Amino acid sequence: MVKTYHDADADLSLIQSKKVAIIGYGSQGHAHALNLKDSGVQVKIGLRPDSSSIKKAQLAGLEVVSVADAAKWADVIMNLVPDQTAAKVYHDEIEPNMKPNVTLMFAHGFNIRFRTITPPPTADVSLVAPKAPGHRVREVFTEGGGVPALVAVEQDASGNARALALSYAKGIGCTRAGVLNTTFTEETETDLFGEQAVLCGGVSALIKCGFEVLTEAGYQPELAYFEVCHELKLIVDLIYRGGLEYMRYSISDTAEWGDYIAGPRVVTAETKKAMQGLLADIQSGAFAKRFIEDQNSGRKQFEAFRAAERNHPIEKVGAELRAGMPFLDPVKVVNGAVVKA
Question: Distance (Å, rounded) from C-alpha 96 to C-alpha 94?
């Protein structure tokens, strides 16, 4: 059984005695910073001078400094910038300025696993990875709860790296729900696989394919959208609460019978073989190499993918239908920013 830590296993005073720099103020950054602040931890936000997040962080009552100044000041540096920019930020601004016995922390193991960042031997290197988007990390914390997280130690120069990581996890509320022990490699590889094979890549492709099959057979696009996309949330919520068994308990017998006979026809042995290929690409570093190369050369393929997906018919139909359901609080992405639909 995996080792799981809870509130009683973590000493909050350890992180309260440290100066913590949060590098980045995006989804995870704002949640970590505000939760730590509410837990009595000294926090500063490290951002580039032209960051659009400076005002947001300041309005939330947080002190904002340059990344270099944050690195000079901190005992603990949590790097929460995107995977593709984390290495550059580290090499250019963090590494030349950080203390020799600093604790370097991450919420995703990507840059350590694929060796784009190699910390000095005097540093502790640990991971606290909440298993939820940042807004949920913050919301659940303010409600008195917490989201589960993963914890890992890659390098324990001080002999105290795990205890401090658990203290940090308690500071952001995760030990309230449970923190699972893992490694940087396991966290990175399973996270990437889950995103690609199921949560993002698999689900997106399944939704689009179902929509196309129905509309190509002559069914109305609006009905197709409801059947293969809109209702997905209802099913996922059931699974989230009670697993596959509770979902099957909650749906009709017709739907449950369809689950049993149709699932294996859609997700076949060939599908599993393709998933194994995805995992092999992740494990070998091929996926990371391709991603970083595209990001470093102008993101041409990345942006081409985005443009093509934006124009899929299900996106057009879905936007029109959601606009008529204000209770959903519908949004859309315009020029890289989220606005009310």
Answer: 6
Sheet harboring 149-155: ordered strands across?
Answer: 4-5, 179-181, 149-155, 124-130, 103-106, 76-79, 19-23, 42-46, 63-65
Residue tagged active-site, from 6, 30, 91, 108: 108
Is the per-residue pLDDT at 5 higher than 90?
Answer: yes
pTM tops 0.90? yes
Rounded to whole angstroms, how far apart are CA atoms 220 and 239?
Answer: 28
For 112, phi then psi, to 5°, come to -80, -45
Mind giving me the DSSP string for 50-63? T-TTHHHHHHTT-E
- Condensed to tens digits (0 to 9), the pLDDT of residues 19-76 reads 999 999 999 999 999 999 999 999 999 999 999 999 999 999 999 999 999 999 999 9
Annotation says 32 is catalytic: no
The DSSP code sequence of 245-295 is HHHHHHS-HHHHHHHHHHHHHHS-HHHHHHHHHHHHHHHHTHHHHHHHHHH
Burial of 61 (0-12, 13-18, 19+ CB in 10 A): exposed
The predicted pLDDT at position 46 comes to 98
Residue 136, token pair as written in the block: 């949920």
Residue with tokens 């490699």: 185
Residue pLDDT, tens place only, 119-149 = 999 999 999 999 999 999 999 999 999 999 9
Which tokens hold the place of 113?
């696993």
**Sole residue written with tokens 């963090």:** 94
CB 41 within 8 A of CB 98: no
Which of left, alpha, beta for 179 (phi over 0: left; psi -120 to 50: alpha)? beta
**Cβ distance 42 to 76 under 8 Å?**
no
- Token duo for residue 323: 């606009």
Closest CA relative to residue 3, chosen from 217, 186, 259, 260 = 186
